[in-house]
């Protein structure tokens, strides 16, 4: 019976064949222990000299790292293994013998590993991170479908910027100027006016020359937009969404979290509703924590976000930022014109902002005023203005950065490990 590692529990005490790669091996005279992987998981294969042919045993001892094989043997329980099972091998067939595999079990520097990212992905830790990423994606689709959202795909090539403060990747679109999308939000607002509640999931690009552990040049965003939804209602959807994906990972990625040595108890505490503080309160908290030079009207950096998060064991919403440091489309607080109805969700443990969202301006005259203040081209943004001219409604939306969320839930320090092939300031290879 041919199967995969993640299905072996169905074949307890039965003989199966699995296509695998050799991740590592060791031997103790009369027994060889092979660490095997097949893409779905890892399992130990045990070769006992007395139970196989001499040729098979010698083959097991001489196998090289990352050689591909077909192995046949019996699945047995192994309480010592985090996986719970091992394979007592009877036959080994070499498909391809790998030689001089560059990533050995010894320690390697980050740059070396990044240069070999196409191979580093095979390691147990990287495999676990990718599985958690996959589970978050699955949970995202489940949550939004359950909540009545429609999946919509905004364009990646655009003729205008969603946020004027971020540098864009410029390209030629035949005889026009074009940019790689930094956000699908504006087009998602148009989709919300047609379909009510929508969400997108796709790549976005920021030409920021940043080298921090939180930044990528190319990253993936989940961006919901909702018609007839207030700012407060949006916050509830955000916290319920984060709780949903957390519960999904805790349920389905137990082994992966264990491999990453993640403190699961801290993740189990993540329950909605999340605490909320205003920008004004955040300024006061920072001054109390020793940030004496922080001034009202400044945006928060990583140290500020980390300091604020230290006061909570849950993600925390920081709401009502100053209008002048936020995007042109954010709706002003009706009781206070100098702040907008927005929120950033700051993850615990120093992982920073994972969600940014706001109520969107729905008043035509105010949006036209914003166009003037931000020197936005009427031609490039006319279609966006039309959304306020023809049946405008209160609406809100947000964007969750997938890689930062994966980093937080996985407990990984740097976002470069949370995407299969990271694009960094000085890295476009492999």
UniProtKB/TrEMBL annotation:
Catalytic EC class: ligase
Chain coiled-coil ranges: none
Gene that encodes the chain: asnS
Subcellular location: Cytoplasm
GO terms under cellular component: cytoplasm
Source organism of the structure: Gracilibacillus orientalis
Protein name: Asparagine--tRNA ligase
UniProt-listed HAMAP family: Asn_tRNA_synth (MF_00534)
Catalytic reaction equation(s): tRNA(Asn) + L-asparagine + ATP = L-asparaginyl-tRNA(Asn) + AMP + diphosphate + H(+)
Subunit (UniProt): Homodimer.
GO biological process: asparaginyl-tRNA aminoacylation
All residue ranges annotated as the Aminoacyl-transfer RNA synthetases class-II family profile domain in the record: 132-430
Entry-linked SUPFAM superfamilies: Class II aaRS and biotin synthetases (SSF55681), Nucleic acid-binding proteins (SSF50249)
Family note: Belongs to the class-II aminoacyl-tRNA synthetase family.
UniProt keyword annotation of Cell membrane present: no
């Amino acid at each position: 019976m041919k199967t995969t590692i993640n299905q072996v529990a169905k074949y307890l005490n039965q003989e199966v064949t699995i296509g695998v790669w050799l991740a590592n091996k060791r031997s103790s005279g009369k027994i060889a222990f092979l660490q095997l992987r097949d893409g779905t998981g890892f399992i130990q294969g045990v070769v006992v000299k007395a139970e196989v042919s001499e040729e098979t045993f010698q083959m097991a001892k001489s196998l090289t790292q990352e050689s591909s094989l077909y192995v046949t043997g019996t699945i047995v329980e192994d309480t010592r293994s985090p996986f719970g099972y091992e394979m007592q091998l009877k036959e080994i067939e070499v498909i391809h013998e790998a030689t001089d595999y560059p990533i050995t079990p010894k320690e390697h520097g980050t740059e070396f590993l990044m240069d070999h990212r196409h191979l580093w992905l095979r390691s147990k830790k990287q495999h676990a991170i990718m599985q958690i990423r996959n589970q978050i994606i699955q949970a995202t689709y489940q949550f939004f479908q359950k909540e009545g959202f429609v999946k919509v795909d905004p364009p990646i090539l655009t003729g205008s910027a969603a946020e004027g403060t971020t540098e864009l990747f410029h390209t030629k679109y035949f005889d026009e100027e074009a940019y790689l999308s930094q956000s699908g939000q504006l087009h998602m607002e148009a989709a919300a006016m047609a379909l009510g509640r929508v969400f997108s999931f796709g790549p976005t690009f920021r030409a920021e020359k940043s080298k921090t552990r939180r930044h990528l040049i190319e990253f993936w965003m989940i961006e919901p937009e909702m018609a007839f939804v207030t700012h407060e209602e949006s916050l509830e959807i955000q916290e319920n969404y984060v709780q949903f994906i957390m519960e999904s990972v805790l349920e389905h990625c137990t082994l992966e979290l264990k491999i990453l040595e993640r403190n699961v108890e801290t993740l189990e505490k993540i329950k909605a509703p999340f605490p909320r503080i205003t920008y004004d309160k955040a300024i006061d908290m920072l001054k109390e924590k020793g940030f004496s030079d922080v001034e009202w009207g400044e945006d928060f950096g990583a140290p500020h976000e980390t300091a604020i998060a230290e006061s909570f064991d849950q993600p925390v919403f920081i709401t009502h930022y100053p209008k002048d440091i936020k995007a042109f489309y954010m709706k002003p607080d009706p009781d206070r014109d100098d702040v907008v109805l927005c929120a950033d969700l700051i993850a615990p443990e120093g992982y920073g902002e994972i969600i940014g969202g706001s109520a969107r301006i729905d008043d035509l005259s105010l949006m036209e005023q914003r166009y003037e203040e931000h020197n936005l081209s009427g031609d490039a943004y006319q279609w966006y203005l039309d959304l306020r001219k023809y049946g405008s409604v209160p609406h809100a939306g947000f964007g969750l950065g997938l890689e930062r969320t994966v980093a937080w839930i996985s407990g990984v320090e740097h976002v470069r490990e949370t995407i299969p092939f990271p694009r960094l300031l000085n890295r476009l290879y492999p």
